Amino acid sequence: MAKIKVIALDVDGTITFHNKLLDIEGYKAIQKAGKAGLIVILTSGIPVQGLRPIAGLMGASKYLIGENGGGIFDGENLEILSNPESAKKCFEELKKSGIKGIEIYSKADMRLSEVCLRLGPDIKEIEKVAGKYSLRVVATGFAIHLTMPRVNKGNALKKLLQKLGYKMEECAAIGDSRNDIEMVRDSGLGIAVANARREVKDVAKYVTKKSHGAGVMEAVNYILRFNKKIREAKIAEL
Hints:
Mean pLDDT: 95
Number of helices: 8
Largest sheet: 8 strands, mixed
CATH class of the largest domain: Alpha Beta
Structural class: alpha/beta
Oligomer: single chain
């Protein structure tokens, strides 16, 4: 087991309530993690440009993962990991398909790796069209994302950690929704908050008893205890 040095933390539904209002316990958890020397990387379905002010206000690190893994920010440079052209073509076909409720999430979104739709349309109908373009459809509970198959938070986290000089086993990942599955599954210590979807809980190594921000605080405390046990085990070996 490796000591946890980094926390990859989902935003919507994890440090916020489902209405996207911040749970103050989530803010306190980020502050506590930072004081303990842990690097907190915010991960989200929203673009990196939108994450930067949130990270600043929350006291998280400058390292970010946006668009569900479509973009990573290493503190200096934004790297886009997917070409959105197929998603844009798919969106144009969806608009002509007759499927009810096809609407771009926000004209001000400025996404660089994917297309994001508002909730409402039948996911299976969208998947039929997206399949023609070899696209992945991810419904998070907040929006519907059209993206390339290998784009996810887990792969983006691996790439960002490599750039920063860390290993996946040195990272804990905390999330609640389908777009968090890969990073929770592949990290050294995957944690699902109590309000997480069953699919996320199934791949997590630990599930909190509390939801949203309170669950994140519980997760941070668990990580600190986890690191303490590793430290004590190493001392015992001396």
